[in-house]
Amino acid sequence: MQRRVFLLDDHPLVREWLATLIAAELDFQLCGQAEDTTQALAKVLQLKPDIIVLDLSLPRGSGLDFIKEVRGQLPSVKILVLTMHEEASVAERAFRAGANGYAVKRETGPGIIDAIRAVVDGKFYASTPLANELASRVIGGARVSKEPNDVLSDRELEVFRLRGQGRSLKEIAAHLGVSVKTIGSYEARIKEKLGLSDAGDLMREAVLWHDRQRGI
């Protein structure tokens, strides 16, 4: 029986690459794809795929929020995160949101197919380095940290990430579908949690953090 796969990624070349990988497997069928969460949610609710493969960093909407939304409406669907983020703390957030697996894009094509197959078969999957670190974090307990990935909520981290991209309050509010005042409230909590004194400190730290995530 063919398992139906849905792709959510804002990069057309990535979707094309994944579609080619999936088409080569007799037990998989690509049933749909989207580039943003709004478009994806409508399609997923209609198509009811066996598994969704999605990136976390999307131009409109939050990948983590999308996972929570899908998990609430289609609890049986499997979800595999496929992303550039290789931090165990980000993987933890994805699993807490409801993901069944977490793979990084630098894996080989066969490795990604193995990840999809494992998740759709009901198994837990995490890329090897992440799996080891996740196990260490669970065994060793949560560490005290001022790292944004560890102390900010999902929505606060999304605001922080968008600030690091140079987005204005108005742009972030439009992106997340909330008011500018709400974004201001998020930023107040971010400053408190990270020990930042003002908006300038927040912007500087957000840009530095964003560059670290990109390996700059």
Which helices and strands appear, and what pairs or packs with what?
Elements: E1 3-8, H1 12-23, E2 28-34, H2 37-47, E3 51-54, H3 63-73, E4 78-83, H4 88-97, E5 101-104, H5 109-120, E6 125-126, H6 128-140, H7 148-151, H8 154-164, H9 169-176, H10 180-194, H11 199-213
Parallel strand pairs: 1-2, 1-3, 3-4, 4-5, 5-6
Helix pairs in contact: 2-3, 4-6, 8-10, 8-11, 9-10
Can you offer a commentary on this structure?
The chain is α/β, with parallel strands linked by helices. It folds into two domains: 3-140, Rossmann fold (3-Layer(aba) Sandwich), CATH 3.40.50; 148-213, Winged helix-like DNA-binding domain superfamily/Winged helix DNA-binding domain (Arc Repressor Mutant, subunit A, Orthogonal Bundle). Helices cover 56% and strands 13% of the residues. A six-stranded parallel β-sheet has the order 2-1-3-4-5-6, with helices on both faces. Helix 8 packs across helix 11 and helix 9 (169-176) packs across helix 10 (180-194). The longest helix has 15 residues, at 180-194.
